[in-house]
């Protein structure tokens, strides 16, 4: 049990670390050489030039203006200055609504903290239930519910507090849902013409022996949407082509590297070896070798392009169908086309850059099987992940290694290596697993067959939240792996489970306070420093960058990683709601987290992150749902806790809360969720009418042509030689877009951080 | 514990009773005087005339043809003869699919019974676990799983059986879903033009200060569905009017009665008293009195009609909007109209005769509140209904009465009355409750705000199923009221509950065998006798019938009462699936039920029932879902049972089954349910195109005018004096249809059995 002074020490340590990070950040961001690491967003928007263009040579790299160092925290007010509407224009609605999650944290917890300190702390403090006992306790426990004696009438205060928390939280959530729904509608209404407004994604087009998929699609929509159908694009399986483009890109990078080397040192022509990793094989002239390689691949690529276009087998049963009006697209997206609900599945097309191309061709039955497999797999991942890790850990100790690989024995017996293995290896398996976890979850979501990056991130986020809830929250509260918990849940009666967990809640307060400080305070301060992008940028800048364009590609702005960051915020909501009525002392720590994180992420969103897609805050319903979940969990745990405190009369009174909260959830779902899922006809009609009046002769067909082109074709715009898009003839009806999963394992990491050659990141530059 | 001979006696008794019912039916149905009781369907379809028209006087009433009595069971093959397609034409798809539920029972349980008797019975029989024990057991238990000793490897046979049952049931269900979906689609495709194909029900039309609801509706749809909107009908609150019409109808009945009395006995003019129930007040000439009363009410009614039409306040915010094509209606029904999902709610309009008018005007927020209230109320009804009944029972004993009403003491002390009170009264409260229960559930569903009779019946059915499951099935198995069970569920761990229930399952086999015989065999035989309609018909026939039309109204064909009958069938599915692997001896009894009930209901559907609406088998998904539920329950109970039998190895093997079954359920839901819920555009377009080619000049607007008229206006077609429909001028835009709940308490009973003056039953006669 940590005492108040322990927590003070921990707080001081974390505050100092955070301050150190902030100071480092303040220093580094002022150096012109790091400008593209800390302000990439402005470069991408074309609103900032390299500082290199002016001033003395040394000032290109180091900032010598002493005054600027004095105001090292001035980024904070700067980050808060930009008004919301401007921020939406600057970074998109997704980012703005993501920031609102932190704001909601403040909105919910500031009044609750005040109320809890005004009411609950005195109620808890003026008891002495803990003094006489032999139970180990800290001074913090004097502020918590543990200090109230068994069967005391004072628990009425905690019950009333639970009611106040519930109503306040629901009120804030309701208001917020209203605001965000309005923001989304205004955002959608104010948007300029976009291809996805007119386009519907059609999947599972049935096979027809007489017609090609393209003909069939055209006939079907001409018959069933005669007044609205405009054009369609079939989706091609351009698997191999995509690989070739990527390979060429890599070769180009090497070529650039060697050319730069040669320029810097013209006396010696660089050489390389043709074998594995350039270490084996015969020695050749590097520049010539890569030039010829690129030419070879370029030819292959051109051939593959032709083949994909001509071979009817490379067409997958999916198409993007565009309509003459938004109304027509809204109708098609929301209706069922045929009596067989497994074919001609229509849905609103995601933004072109949001499409996850690899999943477009999965048939219906396969989708349901995949969902079952992932559900079972996730269950095992969640509850049984400790088993393989324990196994690896058992191998990764000294005896394990000596047994498995006896020839290493003399090596591992060395004192340094021995202590490394003993102190570090057992923990590393778990650490690696936890780092890799978001990728595993993203892989699972991809396997499930979702067709847009935004939906993939949402699905992964909910999986991650479940994992965090069982393995971090419950795992810390009742101290056991999820597997052990599972046994408890099965063997314990329904009313015992909240009791068991509820009883442990007050005792874990100090642990979670430390957790909030380490993960919430120091972690957030680390986020702003961007160590990894900083290092990578400078490596790339040194070895590869020749032109302005190269430098742009070397930047790694990153993006809000909704799939792993949002569930972590949810953990703070959960902690706050659970401890609000139990140990209010935890609340200020959470408040600091929300406030600090809000400022930091606002800064990052303004200056750094570059979103890969814009979903118009489609993730909001799931954020809302998870806060409601946390609220219900907190109510059930308080119920369990109070029933062990000799205050069973509270049970029926408290049981009302989850019922009401759940009803509130259902109400919000019915009332507001459709605004995030469906496309109202009235809005579509309004925009159509306006646009028709403004631009009566607009050529929509030409505008839409090529909009749902796979990035692999758009990327090739750069090198004119191999361009497939210069000939507009075939694009009107048949546009090549590749599909079928081919790089699932690597895409998650790429599409997130690698802005230079990922599948999804190319369109926003063209 | 009942022995084999006990069951034999019970079976003999039930078979004899059933045979007696069948004999009585065979005799009664041959009497011409009962012809309208046993063959009303044919009269309603105009395919049968009264036997009165020909033959000798006595033959009008009694069948003297001796030979016809010899073939007293020939209705059975006759009932089976009609082919399915003809039956769909004759009675509608709802009835045919309802019959298929019994057929599925046979399809599932015939092979399972054969398999169970071939495999499980020998496996169980050749043990002697029960012989040495002191446990009370019957010879039936020798055939059951109880006879297999603890920890025996023979339980593998039961596990294999569970797999076989699961796969066979799922296979049958899948095939059946396919067949029924196909039937439904063919039925919908072959249907003639019907108003509801073109019409969408719009609810929650927002208030507008400048426009009336009618104008607003027209403008909204002219703007947002410009090419498809045809016309609309606003819904009026004709609450009072409906009451007046009903009152007049009652008066007319009395007038008819007294006129008939006067005709039969012309010497004496009948008199009545004007006061309460005709027993108090001044004596007047009955015929004159009722004539003047009817005239008075008629005038009031005409005034009310005018007032409702003119008063803008009597318009409720709902309307039936019709479109030029099925395609336009299908689009409007499936899409969201505005960005606020609580206004302009559109859904496919139910058939005119299926509309439940009273619920059309409930606003959105009220709907969600009502759902919460009903959910809580149903929870209490399900688990706590024993409390008020126990209270009534405690009052309804001798001491209770003497205490509450001391002046009755001398009366209740009489031996006859005393024994009546002691033997009968305590049970009667429960009996009354169980008889009234379907009405309570229907009232709950109505309060929830559903807008069609078919959806009301479906909702009530699922409530009734839950009630039967907890109070009849589990109540009998673990012998306790649902309230006591609730305590058990809360206080027992998740893996103990299936054990507790599973352990009691084999012991209750004999009880359920008796239950099947009493409720399933004798009950079904009683159904065919139609005692209540028989008596009521003859009473009405004697007192009221003058004309052919009166006689038609005196018939009470009734209908399949889906809300109370279907859950009872489901109970047999549950028993069959649960006992198939435990006590196969129960299966033949269930087979007899399914076979016998199939024949009886087929006969009733052909000759008697007259459906109030046609939903096109929309109830199928819920039937399917409940059979799946029963299957999963049976798997969990077998799992619990085997884990108490020293065969815990079975748990993981058996745990696979519910997961797979649930996945199968999800698959079917995704694959087939849309066919029962949504309206594919292709089908709509196909019918539109066909029809436009066949009848290019069809006047749809005239055809649709007045189709969504409340029955209260249609009924008034009969008496020309007060008809409001003769003037077509106002009908084009404004048609009066009443709304707002006004007779919720009485409607359930009326709309089901009372074909003569209910709200819902009038349209199909006009």
Unreliable spans of chain A: 716-766
Number of domains of chain A: 2
Main sheet: strands, sense, barrel of chain A: 4 strands, antiparallel
DSSP summary, beta strand count of chain A = 6
Largest inter-chain contact set? A-B, 47 and 48 residues
Average pLDDT score of chain A = 80
How would you characterize the overall build of this protein?
Two copies of one chain form a homodimer. By secondary structure, the first copy, chain A, is mostly helical. Chain A has two domains: 4-45 and 65-192 and 365-626 and 638-677, no CATH class; 201-350, no CATH class. In chain A, 63% of the residues lie in helices and 4% in strands. Chain A is built from 32 helices and six strands. Chain A has helices at 4-30, 35-38, 40-44, 66-70, 75-81, 84-91, 93-125, 155-190, 213-224, 239-264, 286-310, 326-334, 364-384, 386-395, 398-404, 409-412, 415-448, 453-477, 482-491, 496-504, 509-529, 531-543, 548-554, 562-580, 587-607, 620-643, 650-672, 674-677, 681-694, 700-704, 711-715, 747-753, and strands at 199-203, 229-236, 271-273, 283-285, 315-323, 345-348. In chain A, the strands form two sheets. The first copy, chain A, has a four-stranded antiparallel beta sheet with strand order 2-5-1-6. A two-stranded antiparallel ribbon of chain A has the order 3-4. In chain A, helix 8 (155-190) runs parallel beside helix 27, helix 10 (239-264) runs antiparallel to helix 11 and helix 18 runs parallel beside helix 24. The longest helix of chain A has 36 residues, at 155-190. The relative contact order of chain A is 0.15. Mean pLDDT of chain A is 80; it is low at 716-766. The interface between A and B is large, with 47 and 48 residues.
